[in-house]
Amino acid sequence: MINIDIVATAIAVLTLFGIYSLMAISLNLEYGVAGVPNFGKALFVSIGAYTAGITYTRLLPLLSGFEVIHPCGPTMGGALQLRSEIMATQPVAGFINLGLTMLIAAVIAGAVGFALSYVTLRLKEEWFLALVLLVGGETVRIVVRGADDFICSHNGISSVAQPFYFLDDPRTSSLLFMLLALALALLAYLYSERLIRSPFGRMLKGLRENEDVTRGLGKGISLARAQIMLIGSAIAAVGGALFALNTGFVNTNDFVVTLTLDVWVMVVLGGIGNNRGALLGALLIALMDRFTQVGAIALNMSGSDVEFNYVRFIAFGIILIWMLRYRSAGLLPESRLTTGAHDVVRRVLEK
Amino acid sequence: MPPALLTTSLVNTIQIGSLYALMALGITLTFSVMKLPNFAHAEYVTAGAYAALIVSLSGVLNPLVIMAAAFIVGALSALISQLAVFKRLEGKEVSLYTLILSSFAVGLIIRYILFLMADYFNLFDLRIGIPLTIVFRDGSLILSNLFAWVVPTSIVLVVLLTLLLNATPLGREMRALANNVNLARVIGIPVERVKNYTWLLVGGLAGVAGALWGLQTAVHPLMGWGAIISVFAAAILGGLSSFSGTILGAYVVAFSENTVMLFLNANFGVDLAYKPAIPFIIIIAVLLIRPQGFTNLIRRAGDLQR
User: Fold this and answer.
1) What interface predicted TM-score (ipTM) does this complex get?
2) What are the residue ranges spanned by the domains of chain A?
3) CATH number for the domain including B54?
4) Inter-chain residue contact B287 with A136, CB threshold 8 Å
5) Which domain holds residue B182?
6) CA-wise closest residue to A9 among A295, A283, A241, A291
7) pTM confidence score
8) Mind telling me how many Å the CA of A325 is from chain B's nearest CA?
9) By a Cβ cutoff of 8 Å, what residues of chain B touch chain A?
10) Is B191 helix (H, G, I), strand (E, B) or coil?
11) pLDDT mean over A167-184
């Protein structure tokens, strides 16, 4: 048997949970609340990750007063060493860089999401938006992989260290990073809860249920759709930046359609339209990810030839179909929402 | 661009375009008859390719037998996915996105079952064992026996499919379903049976395409998935409804992936790494500029919904 370090496993699972939560909440806002089928989640997540790759190689040396070394080709080793040194010796630069990374990523992804939502206006059928987003994500991936200017084409950027890297004890630093991820996820959760309860959130639900009625009530639906794409994409990009920091490298191979599907599985499993459901889905998928990794190692060590990592995808497919067929509302179905006004009225009535 | 390169790329265009046509026709057919954009279609191709590979490894090298095996396996995997998943979802009032998602899930399951199998029996990156011979050589134009199999087979299958759709009772029923399912049911067309036959046909064509595809490249569990976007691009060029439009679209996609790409590479220095982006650009451009594809250009020729 293998020894499992329980604390390290818990930290890894919870970090992953925080990151997945950001992605799941963003998809829940877009599809669950507003009904916009974002099949391009990988695109917006990858924008965050690529931004991290670019800022860590270009912005970080500038912030800490070094010359920027071209990160690709023959100078790759030097650039990598410089990054590690800065991250180990100048924590402040690391934090500023991280903050700027998230900001830039959120702004770029938000702008892309805002712009892409207008594509729907020109499309003949609504599901074409899903196709455009899916295909757009792959196009961006191919362009980034083909060009040297972003993240060294297919080589990717390694040593994108998380900001607590300067601490000597790796466990403390990963614990702090976990807390950072969880805090951001909590922030996103609270924000989206507020958003759903606001008049804007109710309009989005109206948009999801019946577009024509919402339009008939005098709401500008294309702007609403664009706004929710902006918000969702920005959240997803922050998740993507954390994703890159967590794995430590940025490679285009991580942002294929399967990532989009993972996020969809989280939302469908947890409950479409319910933020707590999205969190539950993210937690279950994070646990399952870790479990399949451990299972794969255990199985290989016991001398079996079966590649357990493939089983993960088969299980994902089966979960997805099972949920769609038998519990299409998810484990935690969307509940009736009460607003502040509602609560006041009830209190008055009870008196 | 040197003329030798041009001829080779044109040969490739015809060869690959024929395969795209076989696959894209399946997408068009499922979308028209079943109203389902089926992303699991790629996996029927891979399943067919693996069936062909296994038959050829067992020592049978007759291409017709190999293709028949691929047809059967592809058809069965399509029928199973209909009976086990899509049919069960149809009963409920589900949104199109649920169907798209479930087709992704079906694809995921088939693909990784093939991965497991290929891993267990060590079947990665093998070629179907039909020896390559040159059947025609004239200057820079070289045609292998591959070309002699791929192109005529595709053409024959496409012609047969068109005949089936236009001249048989089953084809008429399929067209009725494409037009209006409820009306078809009312006038007594056995809707479920017609759907099952359509799935068999679609999966079988995809399987044959996989076998032919495996003749020219190595068989890998990701090969179908790698081609699916090009195939969707072809189907979208055909407006997802017209047969002749889809076939034309398949050759247009293959032409831009091969000849146009080489032209851009030779004249403007565009890196060949960007080749996979071409079908994406086609899809986005068509959806935005001309979502009906070629349908209006060749309206009467082969429209399913006439």
Assistant:
1) 0.80
2) 6-256
3) 1.10.3470
4) no
5) 3-302
6) A291
7) 0.84
8) 6
9) 37, 85, 88-89, 92, 94, 96-98, 100-102, 104-109, 111-113, 115-116, 119-120, 229, 232, 236, 271, 273-274, 276-277, 280-281, 283-284, 287-288, 291-292
10) helix
11) 85
